[in-house]
């Protein structure tokens, strides 16, 4: 009995593949009105139909290969390309991976109806049942493929948004001709420190800056890792031909650096951003003088 099942399973899968190929037009017409496809193809229904045909052809290839339960089957590559962007569009509209998988599962119903209609006059109930079960397995694997694609797309979106937030949180400001500054606020970690270095080096090249100021007034704590990142940034800026100045080192941070035994002797430091700017301007031969602030009264 076990041998017979192994013999008939590949035949059933191939029969399912042949059915999908024969009925690709009807299946595509049914699927084209599904929300999963209409989300992307909002203007032309014909484009939705063609996309559906490509998916049906891919599923037919999977069925003919007999790899109904293999998410890595070659035919699923096309499915990922076609349905992946549709799933991404649904995810962008606020749908969860489970909801999208439910929409994918809904694609099975019209195909099952066409399958039963085609075998309506067939007296071999076992054959009809076997094909229906094979279709259920194929669509279940399809759901898994789309869920994996949706989750992966969601992770990529989160990574891109996180990168964008890091870039926004670390702006490079041009203070004067040849002088740029990065006012840092919040906690520094490895990822953000890398963004700081890349943004600063790009600004040095774009602005042809001779001086770069790293202002850490808004950084609550500095540990050995953060200090190492700052020193690497200073060294990289020097390699680009710019002198780097660190400003805003508060008393608590200064004590921490001393306790950690970190040597910042080779780094130019100033109390605040204004002092760092004054130093950079003076180094460029620009005279900086402090003017007293007076209240302007009526004359």
TrEMBL record:
Family matches, as PROSITE patterns: STAS (PS50801)
Q: Is-annotated flag, keyword rRNA processing? A: no
One Pfam family this chain carries? STAS
User: Residues in domain STAS?
Assistant: 169-280
Keywords, ordered alphabetically: Phosphoprotein
Q: Does the keyword Aminoacyl-tRNA synthetase apply?
A: no
Q: What is the official name of this protein in its record?
A: STAS domain-containing protein
